[in-house]
Design a protein that fits this description.
Length: 89
């Protein structure tokens, strides 16, 4: 086999190896992108759940504050009524 043919065959072989590596890397990148997309979707779902929970907590905190205000007002009325009746506590 002449030198030129060997060089051409070696070059073609190297090109084939390089193309195979490119194909493998491309396939891996696609799998990684798919995994990333799945993780992002899961994270968005978790963020929605967290936001919903935070809104519920805020709503409940407001409700507790209102009820505490009502309790404080009732306690004040009890204190006033008690003091009018002669200071019985």
């Amino acid at each position: 086999m002449p030198f030129q043919e060997i060089t051409v065959a070696d070059t073609e072989n190297e090109i084939s190896k390089t193309l195979l590596q490119i194909s493998e890397v491309t396939s891996r990148l696609k799998r990684l992108q798919q995994s990333l997309d799945e993780q992002n979707a899961a994270m968005q779902q978790q963020n929605k759940l967290i936001s919903t929970a935070e809104m519920e907590i805020t709503k409940n905190n407001v409700l507790v504050q209102r009820k505490q205000t009502q309790v404080d007002q009732l306690n004040k009325k009890i204190d006033i009524t008690t003091s009018r009746l002669g200071g019985v506590s």
